[in-house]
Amino acid sequence: MTLEFVNPEALGAPIGWNNGVLAPANGRLLLIAGQAGWETDLPGTPPDFVGQFARALDRVLAIVRDAGGTPADLARLTIYVTDLSSYTASRKALGALWRERLGKHYPAVALLEVKGLVDRGAVVEMEGTAVIGGGS
To answer: How far is the C-alpha of 114 from the C-alpha of 96, rounded, in Å?
Structure first.
């Protein structure tokens, strides 16, 4: 199974994401609900921005693996942050974290700054789509 990345030249070269992802025929679509970097019912103090980003991404990847997939099956990821400046200030650490978990695999990504998240102390939440299996 291979995802086909779609990046029209007219849009410029993407860095750290892809503009579109074409799923293989007969793949199983996995829709991943929002995975927060911290949940209300957890005791203690929420981790910093990078820690929450790692936790949310690890939860997304755990769901992909539980469905029989690999990180390379992640086709789309939407990242919600409560403070865009925290994301920007953490880009180097986030890049290292990303490469550790996904290598050079970049799905179609959207990043949105939101006013708040439901879970107490959460500053990052991710939802995604994976395509498991497929091919000809």
So the answer is: 24
- Reported as a single tens digit per residue, the pLDDT across 24-50 is 788 889 989 999 999 999 999 999 999
What CATH homologous superfamily does 4-132 map to? Answer: RutC-like (3.30.1330.40)
Phi, psi dihedrals of residue 68, rounded to the nearest 5°: 95, 10
Nearest-angstrom CA–CA distance, 18 and 122: 26
**3 and 23 in contact (C-beta within 8 Å)?**
yes
Amino acid at 79: I
**In 3-state terms, what secondary structure has residue 48?**
coil
pTM of the model: 0.87
First to last CA, the chain: 8
Cα gap 32→60, rounded to integer Å: 7
Strands 108-113 and 74-81: parallel
